[in-house]
Design a protein that fits this description.
Structural class: alpha/beta
CATH architecture of the largest domain: 2-Layer Sandwich
Shape: globular
Low-confidence stretches: none
Number of domains: 2
Number of helices: 9
Mean pLDDT: 96
Distance between the termini: 34 Å
Largest sheet: 11 strands, mixed
Strand content: 25-35%
């Protein structure tokens, strides 16, 4: 397999995930360079990441090892402009979420580059092993026709993308209702690690429902900084006509007077006398393997595996005629419904999102 040469615009926290994928999997990915705003930051990236840096997209594309794909990982308002510049140069783009900050920006970006077919969105949530396994349960028909999803895990556009992925729902109209609540919550861990906090502080929660049409619905439940807070665990529910998935538990109709329940098992190496090193190998339900890790040996966490899957899907798309990993239309629609959740919470009124031009 030919390694995918790619560049990155931006050098923040999220960019580091793509750099680590290239460092751990050089046979699959080659990071050709990184665009940073300043020479000082560039020198730091060169020391820490071991890759060359430049100050502009034009310089990145003019380098002898021109990238076949460029990841845009910059602040929200900058993403559309960087995306437009790359599309104008004919370069495929993987734009971090969201691809534009607001409704007007989404509509303008779609009008400008939507028809190019060059823009994918770095929605990594759906590539996480556990979610791929849950989708495999749905695809196997164990829970029948999927009808609703409950997500208390990640926020707004990520959650919407996960809902649509698990339900198999496209980019249609929706009706969103939402409400905000504030309650005390201890925040012992943040992005930088343990906070030292010992007393609760006010934390906001949004509860929302999404009517996606044809009897399909979603419940959204997210509390501030829930990504990092170990006192708020993941809760993913997929309900169908013949059963449901609740976290790692699957319950389904097994035939006359028979209801079955089993648990998705995570198989890892490196436990006790296993000397292969700690690594996810596969996820299974009984004898059915739902997900198999193709990147064994990287010791990646699930979030890092998701990014590796996303880059691999981009490589397949560009080199082998594979499907688009996550088209711009999907990323735009996720954020449009995420914005509607905020609008409904602010107004206290239902927000109807009509069928959009990217549908």
């Amino acid at each position: 397999m030919t390694a995918l040469p790619f560049g990155i615009v931006g050098s923040g926290w999220r960019s580091g995930f793509f750099a680590r994928a290239a460092r751990a999997l050089p046979e699959l990915f080659t990071l050709t360079g990184v665009v940073t705003r300043t020479a000082e930051r560039g020198a730091q990236v060169e020391r820490e990441w071991g890759v060359p840096t430049v100050r502009s997209i034009a310089e990145l594309l003019a380098a002898p090892d021109r990238p076949e794909l460029v990841v845009v990982s910059v602040p929200w308002p900058v993403t559309p402009e960087a995306t437009r510049e790359l599309v104008a140069a004919g370069v495929p783009v993987l734009a971090e979420t969201p691809p534009a900050p607001d409704v007007a920006g989404l509509e303008s970006l779609w009008a400008d580059v939507g028809a190019s077919g060059l823009v994918q969105v770095a929605e990594h949530s759906v590539f996480m092993p556990a979610h791929q396994a849950r989708r495999a349960v749905v695809d196997a028909g164990l829970v029948g026709e999927p009808t609703s999803v409950q997500v208390s895990s990640t926020h707004l556009y990520h959650a919407v993308g996960l809902v649509r992925y698990l339900l198999g729902v496209g980019r249609g109209a929706a009706v969103v209702r939402a409400q905000r609540f504030t309650a005390p919550l201890l925040q012992p861990v943040g992005r930088e690690g343990w906070t030292g906090a010992t007393e609760p502080t006010p934390a906001g929660t949004i509860l929302a429902t999404l009517d996606l049409g044809e009897g399909r619905s979603a419940l959204y439940d997210f509390t501030d900084d829930q990504w990092y807070n170990p006192l708020r665990t993941n809760r993913i529910v997929v309900r169908g006509s013949h059963g449901e998935v609740v976290g790692d538990d699957v319950t389904w109709w097994g035939g006359e007077r028979t209801v079955l329940t089993s648990r998705v098992h995570r198989r890892t190496s490196g436990v006790e006398q296993d000397l292969d090193g700690f690594d996810l190998t596969h996820l299974s339900l009984g004898e059915r393997v739902l997900y198999r890790n193709p990147f064994v040996g990287t010791r990646f966490a699930d979030d890092e595996l998701a990014v590796a899957h996303l880059l691999a899907a981009c490589s397949s798309w560009l080199h082998d005629g594979g499907p688009e990993p996550y088209p711009l239309a999907d990323g735009i629609h996720d954020h449009r419904l995420g914005l509607a959740i905020g609008e409904a919470a602010d107004s206290g009124e239902a927000v109807t999102v009509p069928t959009p031009p990217w549908a």
